[in-house]
Structures are given as C-alpha cells and as structure tokens.
Amino acid sequence: MIALTIPKIRCGGCVASVEKAIHGVDASAEIKADIEARRIEVTSGADRQALTTALADAGYPAEAA
Fold first, then answer.
1. pTM over 0.90
2. In this structure, what DSSP letter does residue 50 have?
3. How far from the centroid of its chain's Cα atoms is residue 28's Cα?
4. What's the CA gap between 64 and 62, in Å, rounded?
C-alpha cells in the first residue's frame, strides 16, 4: 500500500481525476481517497515514482504521506 498526500484534492471530481491518472498506470489499482485529509491510499503493482509522476502530469502533485 502506498499512502500519498495530494494537497489539490478538494472534491469528488478531483478524486475522479486522480483515479483516472492512477488507473492509466495500473488499471487494477485499488484506491481509497480521503478528501478531508487530502490523502489517498493505493494498492498497486506500480511503484511510487510511477504513480507520483502520473499524478503530477494530471495536475495533482503528490508527496509521501
């Protein structure tokens, strides 16, 4: 499980964009989002760098939680 803080997550639309970016790297990734904490947890075969790069490319820079 990879935990990431994403300061720009503010709504369900943001979560959908984040999920789309992560699923672009790993279609089978499982994602749990906490909008209030601006945090996601990802269970994926992809590594943290691939996920953070995809998120940054989508406009949602992330950092380790």
1. yes
2. H
3. 13
4. 7
Distances (CA, A) of 35 to 5, 20, 47: 10, 16, 23
State pLDDT tens for residues 24-61: 999 999 999 999 999 999 999 999 999 999 999 999 99
Tokens 């820079």 belong to residue: 61
Radius of gyration of the chain (CA): 10
SS3 category, 60: coil
Long-range own/partner contacts, residues 15-23 (CB < 8 A, 24 or more apart): 17/58, 17/59, 17/60, 18/55, 18/58, 18/60, 20/58, 21/54, 21/55, 21/57, 21/58, 21/60, 22/46, 22/51, 22/54, 22/55
The structure tokens listed for 46 are 């992809």
Q: Which residues contact 59 (CB under 8 A, 6 or more apart)?
A: 8, 17
